[in-house]
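Dock 2-oxoglutaric acid; give full complex structure.
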Amino acid sequence: MNAIATTRPAPIGSLADTVVADFIRDGAHRFAEPLDGDACGKLLADIRATRAFDRNLFLSQAEFDANPQYTGVNPRPGRNLLEQFERQLGFVEKAPAIVEAMTALLGPGYEILNKKVVCGVPSSAVPAWLRERILGNPVNNLGAYVRPEYRDVTYFYGIDFHQDLIDYKAREADFLTLYIYLHPVGLSDAPLYLLEGSHRLGGSVFPHDLTRTGDAAWRYRNGEHGEVKVAQRILTGATGFAGMWHACTLHGTQPDAADHERISLRYLIAKNGAAPSGIDQVNATLRGPLSLSDTRADLAADGSAAIRKNTVNQA
Ligand SMILES: O=C(O)CCC(=O)C(=O)O
C-alpha cells in the first residue's frame, strides 16, 4: 500500500484528526462509509469458489492424532490465498478514507506487515470430535486441524479477548489492525467484540484479567499498571464495513453461530519511518508498556492449549 506523501497539516475536523482522537480515546475507529460493495461481493465470490467452507476443510481425528502440528499452520508468504487476489485489493488499499487514516496514524511511508483472509467457521462445519476437543479453549484458531492445502486462510471458532501485539514479542505497538467484512455481519456471524479504551493500559500478557461489571461493561486490570473500566462494542456491520484498532486494544469473537461461514479481510499495517505520526501521540497516552518480552501464558511447549478459560464467550 503506497500512501501519497503530504507535508500539509490535516484540516481541523478532518478524518485524520478524528482517527487520532478516536485511537486516543477508544483505541479504535470505525469508518463511517463502507468500502465498495461490488468489489467486496466479487472478491467474496472468488474466495468461496476456491473451496467449500465445510467439514472437508478438516483432517480426520486419526490423521490429526497421528502427527499433531500446532505451529506454522497460518497463512504465510507463498501460502496465502490473498496473494492470488492481489489485483482486486485496490478497493481497500487505495480507498481515500483508508489512505488518509493510515497516513494520519502511521505516517506516509506506512507498510503492510500482513494481510489475509479470516474465516469464522460455523459450528455445522466443525467435526464433533474437534468441537469436543477445543471446547472452552481461549484461542480456537483451527489451523492445526485444517488440511495443509487449506492453510492459506486463518480459520477461527472464536478467540478470547486478546491484543494483536500477542503475535509480536518485543515489537513496539507501532501498528494497527484493519478489518473488513465482505458480507453483512450480524450478531450470529461471529462479529468482533471490542473493549473500547482497553489499549490505555499498554501491552499485557494473554490471557487478560477481565471482570464483567454490567451488560456491556468490563473492569480490566493490567497488574502494576492499574485498571480501567471499558465498554464492550460489538462490531456488526454491512458489506464493506471497515474498522481498525490499536495493537493493545482487546478484542475477540465468539464461535460463529450462523449456518454459514463469516469471511473477512485482516490487515496489519505498521509505521515505517522515524518522523512522528498519530500513533506516537496515541502511544504517549498509554499507562503500560509499549512492548512485551512475553505475550502469552496459555500455551504448552508444543503450542497446544495449556489452559481452558474463555471470557468472550460469557460476553
Ligand atoms: O476473525 C475472527 O474471528 C478473529 C479475528 C481476530 O481477533 C484477529 O485476527 O486478531
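Observed: Residues 188 and 257 are 5 Å apart (CA to CA).
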